[in-house]
Design brief:
By secondary structure, the chain is of the alpha/beta class. It has 12 helices and 12 strands. The strands form 2 sheets. A 7-stranded parallel β-sheet has the order 8-7-6-9-10-11-12, sandwiched between helices. The chain has a 5-stranded parallel β-sheet with strand order 2-1-3-4-5, sandwiched between helices. Helix 11 links the parallel strand 11 and strand 12. Helix 1 packs parallel to helix 12, helix 2 packs across helix 3 and helix 5 crosses helix 7. Bound molecules: glyoxylic acid (GLV) (2 copies). One glyoxylic acid binds next to loops. Pfam families: 2-Hacid_dh, 2-Hacid_dh_C.
Length: 317
């Protein structure tokens, strides 16, 4: 019987189906280290991994000729898997696009709104018993409706954020993306990242992670933002130079940041935690019950397709 390793507990109905079809091992002890990933590649026919499992080039090297033939990743992002190294030794990699697009875009809106309207600060004030009552100047913040949102990476998630900003909040949409996108509502493509950063009231980063976008948002990009600007990242921490972001926030060179992702999760720099003008979430983008079940199902469906000799529908390498 095909041996399947599931690296974290996923939704029960999906687990139950997996256990009917495969000889399943469910691990639930945090991410696989490089050595553990290599070991898993040697001992299982298929693996259902997720973010935090280190399927790096080194892991594939250590694994030699792996027994494993497919990594059915739970998640749209797969920057924790070296897909080229996988392909070289005949390991297919699949992901879970589409099913998490709206949930992730909704977290983008949550961060945009809560950072702009200083909801985190206000909440902390109420809980600390420090609220002294309504006043014309208490908790003043930035208006969102009608402003300009700048989207970095106009993929599925970027387009969903754009849609919500345009239809829900009457915002002007500008974007930076390798290719132009026809999105069914006005959206202006900017020629350079600096132009985008400088023209937007709110910047929302939705590019995929990986080598191509590592530190795309560097000190220069951040320096182009308006002092009123608010920066939101719902993609991957590695896309942003975190030290440069902390620097502009500390200096008040931008107004605030809403972050769902960090360079070294789950580590969040103390400097960020100390900043009142940041809203910090623990990588919740896809974390709705419905979405997480759909992601598990899609990851498993890809493994089932492979086990039946079909092409896994969401193959990425
Ligand atoms: C979550 O961040 C994912 O990549 O699905
Ligand atoms: C990410 O995969 C996206 O589709 O935007």
């Amino acid at each position: 019987m095909t041996k399947l390793l599931i690296t974290r507990r996923i939704a029960e109905p999906v687990l139950a189906q997996a256990e009917k079809l495969f000889d399943c091992t469910v691990r639930d002890q945090g991410g696989l280290s490089v050595e553990e990933a290599a070991d898993a590649l040697r001992h299982y026919d298929a693996i259902l991994p997720t973010l935090g499992d280190e399927f790096t080039a080194e892991a594939f090297e250590l694994a030699g000729e792996p027994r494993c033939k497919i990594l059915g990743n739970f998640g749209v992002g797969y920057n924790h898997i070296d897909t080229d190294a996988a392909a070289k030794v005949g390991v297919a990699v699949t992901n879970t696009p589409d099913v998490l697009t709206d949930a992730t875009a909704d977290i983008g809106m949550t961060l945009l709104l809560s950072t702009a309207r200083r909801a985190g600060e206000g909440e902390r004030m109420v809980r600390a018993g420090q609220w002294e009552g309504f006043g014309p100047k208490v908790g003043l913040s930035t208006h969102v409706t009608g402003k300009t949102v700048g989207i970095v990476g106009m993929g599925r998630i970027g387009q969903a954020v754009a849609r919500k900003c345009h239809y829900g909040f009457d915002m002007d949409v500008i974007y930076f993306n390798r290719s132009a996108k026809e999105v069914g509502h006005p959206a202006k493509r900017m020629d350079t990242l600096a132009e985008l950063m400088g023209a937007a009231d709110f910047v929302v980063v939705t590019v995929p992670g990986g080598a191509e976008t590592r530190k795309l948002i560097d000190a220069d990009a951040l320096a182009a933002m308006k002092p009123e600007g608010i920066f939101v990242n719902i993609s991957r921490g590695e896309v942003v130079d975190e030290a440069a972001l902390i620097d502009v926030l500390k200096r008040g060179a931008i107004t605030g940041a809403g972050l769902d992702v960090y360079e070294n999760e789950p580590h969040v720099p103390a400097d960020l935690i100390a900043l009142e003008n940041c809203v910090l979430l623990p990588h919740l983008g896809s974390a709705t019950t419905e979405t997480r079940q759909a992601m598990g199902q899609m990851a498993l469906d890809n493994i089932i397709a492979w086990s039946e000799g079909r092409e896994p529908p969401q193959k990425v390498n």
